[in-house]
């Protein structure tokens, strides 16, 4: 069944900070005065002590709900363009029930335009769906996302697209939920990465008391259809990463995977939303056993008065064709009444990620 979608009609917001490329400044100067004024106000508010060497470069929110609100970014490059998939909340007169997934497009990682929105399909998504992970496999865009609104019965679903916009659902959805006495059977916040002939699926779950959020992983052959019977849970006896550090509180979620010199790196969100949620990083040689690289957040919430003072959370690691890595993430400064998406470039030194000083690509 072909996924239905709604055309672009809602506002999108964009701000970059630091040293804009010259042509980006020229475009901003040509925009209406009210938009330029808003951009200047937001620019003044941007910043975080954790990213002093590389201030946030992009600032995006979908205003379909009547306020800027976008969460859970996932980015791929497909057919010469960048595609951003993100979570949209429920709101009055929304054409779909509950949470859903929005789609935005860019040619430069700087200017984004909403081009579509996925709608509920089938009984499994009837209460909503969100938090996409995305990958280009076999010449198609694949989304791995969660159902929402079903408590411990929420699970991971799969869909694919030939054009990045219209998606077909996997007929076996949901394709994955975890087993084992150590978890509640729920799976959310999917991300995938190809590794050694398999597609590794990372997901978050909770303990049986539904209080502590933890990470797990499953695998399917890379040349499979990613149907339910193709997945093998690789951690049947316990989590691959669980909260231990004070800043992680009772939550590790939203794994964002990267591969570097044969090792797998997991950027992850520690703490539930607005506690604050902040971003850590761990490394693994086999994709199952992970070791933290830092005891403190890699990307922390901003100081009071900054745009991300309530949190810097739910990361996504995107690698461009030239090998440059970009860490997308969500943030806000009002305890979740609004949400914005931002990005910082990532460099590497001696097997460790660093916030990079370089610019986003030229328009």
Q: Any descriptors?
A:
363 residues, 22 strands, four-stranded antiparallel sheet, mainly beta, Tachylectin-2, Chain A, disordered N terminus, 6% helix
Notes on the structure:
This protein has a single domain, classed as Tachylectin-2, Chain A, CATH 2.115.10. It contains two helices and 22 strands. Strand 8 and strand 9 form a beta hairpin. The chain is globular, with a radius of gyration of 19 Å. The N terminus is likely disordered.
The succession of helices and strands, N to C, reads EHHEEEEEEEEEEEEEEEEEEEEE
Number of helices: 2
Q: For the record, what CATH class applies?
A: Mainly Beta
Distance between the amino and carboxyl termini:
37 Å
**Judging by the overall fold, what is the CATH architecture?**
5 Propeller
* Uncertain residue segments: 1-55
The structural domain count equals 1
User: Going across the major beta sheet, what is the strand order?
Assistant: 3-4-5-6
User: Radius of gyration over alpha carbons?
Assistant: 19 Å
Query: So what's the overall shape?
Result: globular
- CATH superfamily, called what? Glycosyl hydrolase domain, family 43
Structural class designation: mainly beta
CATH topology: Tachylectin-2, Chain A
Largest sheet: 4 strands, antiparallel
Give the gist of this structure.
By secondary structure, the protein is mainly β.
How do the helices and strands line up, and which of them pair or pack?
Layout: E1 12-14, H1 22-30, H2 33-45, E2 60-62, E3 71-78, E4 81-88, E5 100-106, E6 113-117, E7 129-137, E8 140-147, E9 156-161, E10 168-169, E11 188-195, E12 198-206, E13 213-221, E14 232-233, E15 252-260, E16 263-270, E17 278-284, E18 291-292, E19 311-319, E20 325-332, E21 340-349, E22 352-355
Antiparallel strand pairs: 1-2, 3-4, 4-5, 5-6, 7-8, 8-9, 9-10, 11-12, 12-13, 13-14, 15-16, 16-17, 17-18, 19-20, 20-21, 21-22
């Amino acid at each position: 069944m072909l996924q239905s979608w709604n055309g672009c009609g809602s506002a999108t917001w964009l701000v970059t900070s630091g040293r804009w490329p010259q042509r980006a400044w020229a475009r901003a100067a040509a925009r209406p005065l009210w938009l330029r004024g808003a951009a200047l106000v937001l620019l003044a508010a941007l910043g975080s002590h954790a990213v002093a060497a590389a201030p946030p470069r992009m600032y995006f929110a979908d205003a379909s709900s009547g306020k800027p609100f976008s969460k859970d970014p996932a980015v791929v490059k497909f057919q010469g363009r960048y595609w951003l998939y993100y979570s949209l909340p429920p709101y009055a007169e929304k054409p779909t029930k509950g949470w859903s997934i929005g789609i935005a497009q860019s040619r430069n990682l700087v200017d984004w335009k909403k081009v579509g929105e996925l709608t509920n399909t089938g009984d499994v998504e009837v209460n909503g769906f969100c938090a996409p992970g995305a990958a280009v496999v076999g010449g198609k865009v694949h989304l791995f996302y969660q159902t929402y609104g079903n408590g411990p019965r929420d699970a991971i679903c799969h869909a694919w697209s030939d054009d990045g916009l219209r998606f077909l659902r996997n007929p076996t959805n949901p394709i994955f939920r975890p087993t084992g006495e150590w978890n509640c059977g729920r799976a959310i916040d999917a991300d995938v990465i190809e590794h050694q002939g398999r597609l590794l699926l990372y997901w978050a779950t909770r303990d049986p008391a539904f209080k502590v959020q933890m990470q797990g992983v499953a695998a399917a052959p890379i040349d499979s259809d990613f149907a339910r019977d193709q997945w093998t849970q690789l951690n049947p006896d316990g989590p691959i990463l669980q909260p231990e550090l004070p800043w992680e509180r009772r939550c590790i979620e939203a794994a964002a995977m990267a591969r570097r010199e044969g090792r797998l790196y997991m950027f992850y969100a520690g703490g539930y939303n607005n506690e604050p949620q902040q971003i850590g990083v761990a490394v693994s040689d086999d994709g199952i056993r992970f070791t933290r690289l830092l005891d403190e957040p890699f990307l922390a919430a901003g100081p009071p008065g900054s745009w991300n003072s309530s949190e810097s959370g739910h990361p996504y690691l995107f690698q461009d064709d030239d090998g440059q890595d970009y860490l997308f993430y969500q943030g806000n400064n009002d305890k979740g009444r609004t949400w914005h998406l931002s990005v910082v470039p990532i460099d590497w030194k001696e097997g460790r990620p660093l916030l990079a000083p370089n610019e986003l690509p030229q328009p």
